[in-house]
């Protein structure tokens, strides 16, 4: 029973948040107007959005392989990425990130923590990009004066954040020593945090290799550029008057909506984040939700088809991978915690 209630405390907040979002959507959106918005959409632009989404996924594979310093083949990296996104769509606790570290480590004969560290740094940079994109779009969306200068300031803050990470990467021993001194009164925090810090610093090691980090940053920038372009195409399919700031604002909202605790696949929170952002921009709730649902469904379609194919070609199943993740030795689990 203690283990059961411990598990409940982990997944219940996400379930509640998703259900609240779903109920709010059902109560405040006119179903008939929603259906009409879907029927009136430009399906050619939606098809272009689907195709470019696959290109985005292929470039994301290059981003991850760059972080891995080429120690795994692109084929293994790409198909494992698809498997990870599939796991995230259907399993709780963002197990797709742990899952792809586990699966790629097994295929490429790399240690679990080695692979996980690259995912940690990838997520940190994703967060920096999404924050910069969202905050840069806000002044344009609300029509604030000096929007361009604000965007430049945000870009400078992101660069400053990367420099701080670089300093930490160059002074790993000192940073770990400071952490150990701060947490010496809390042994559990020290043990859990120590493993997470090790993983973080392993990922940050890429910052100390100038050429490698530059390549990673260029591929990551291209990846986000593709995301902005594909998102704009989707918005134009529903809102012909949509502009680039709409894409930036919507993409940033989705990134942070996905970070909120929710049901697997960000069910409810994705639609609430993107639908809310587009409603703020357009004043049209039904069309905004139609665009959000279309984007989410296409994401599920791509990840479902490619992820399922990748698992099946390796003789795996979704639940089979989940059981393997649950049964991994505790010491392989970051933070020394159980998955359930």
Question: Your description of this structure?
Answer:
The chain has one domain (41-336). Helix 6 (112-142) crosses helix 11 (244-259). It has 340 residues and is mainly α. Helix content is 80%, strand content 0%.
Chart the SSEs and their pairings.
Blueprint: H1 2-28, H2 31-39, H3 43-67, H4 74-90, H5 95-108, H6 112-142, H7 147-170, H8 172-182, H9 187-204, H10 210-238, H11 244-259, H12 269-282, H13 285-313, H14 318-326
Helix pairs in contact: 2-13, 3-4, 3-10, 3-13, 4-5, 4-13, 5-6, 6-7, 6-9, 6-11, 8-9, 10-11, 10-13, 11-12, 12-13
Low-confidence spans: 330-340
Distance separating the two termini: 13 Å
How many domains is the backbone divided into?
A: 1
Counted by DSSP, the helix tally is 14
Oligomer state equals: single chain
Structural class: mainly alpha
How would you sum up the major sheet?
Answer: none
Q: How many β-strands, per DSSP?
A: 0
Fraction in beta strands: under 5%
How helix-rich are the residues, as a percent range? over 70%
The gyration radius over C-alpha positions equals 21 Å
Dominant shape: globular
Mean pLDDT across the residues is 81
Could you state the order of secondary-structure elements as H and E? HHHHHHHHHHHHHH
């Amino acid at each position: 029973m203690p283990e059961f209630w411990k598990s409940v405390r982990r997944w219940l907040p996400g379930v509640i948040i998703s259900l609240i979002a779903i109920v709010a959507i059902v109560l405040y959106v006119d179903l008939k107007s929603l259906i009409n918005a879907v029927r009136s959409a430009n399906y050619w632009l939606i098809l272009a959005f689907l195709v470019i989404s696959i290109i985005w996924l292929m470039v994301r594979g290059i981003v991850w392989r760059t972080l891995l310093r080429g120690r795994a083949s692109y084929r293994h990296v790409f198909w494992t990425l698809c498997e990870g996104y599939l796991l995230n769509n259907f399993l709780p606790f963002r197990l797709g990130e742990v899952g792809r570290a586990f699966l790629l480590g097994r295929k490429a004969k790399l240690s679990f923590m080695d692979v996980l560290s690259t995912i940690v740094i990838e997520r940190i940079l994703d967060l920096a990009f999404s924050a910069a994109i969202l905050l840069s779009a806000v002044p344009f969306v609300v029509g604030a004066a000096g929007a361009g200068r604000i965007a430049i300031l945000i870009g400078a803050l992101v660069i400053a954040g990367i420099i701080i990470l670089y300093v930490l990467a160059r002074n790993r021993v000192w940073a770990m020593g400071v952490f150990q001194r701060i947490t010496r009164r809390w042994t559990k925090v020290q043990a859990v945090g120590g493993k997470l810090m090790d993983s973080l610093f392993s990922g940050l090691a890429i910052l100390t290799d100038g050429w490698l980090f530059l390549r990673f940053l260029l591929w990551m920038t291209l990846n986000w550029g593709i995301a902005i372009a594909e998102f704009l195409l989707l918005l134009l399919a529903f809102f012909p008057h949509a502009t680039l700031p709409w894409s930036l604002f919507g993409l940033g909202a989705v990134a942070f909506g996905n970070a909120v605790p929710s049901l697997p696949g960000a069910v409810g929170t994705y639609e609430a984040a993107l639908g809310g952002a587009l409603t703020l921009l357009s004043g049209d709730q039904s069309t905004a939700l139609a665009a959000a649902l279309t984007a989410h469904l296409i994401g599920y379609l791509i990840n479902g088809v490619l992820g399922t194919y990748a698992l099946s070609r390796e003789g795996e199943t979704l639940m089979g991978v989940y059981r393997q993740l649950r049964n991994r030795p505790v010491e392989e689990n970051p933070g020394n915690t159980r998955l359930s």
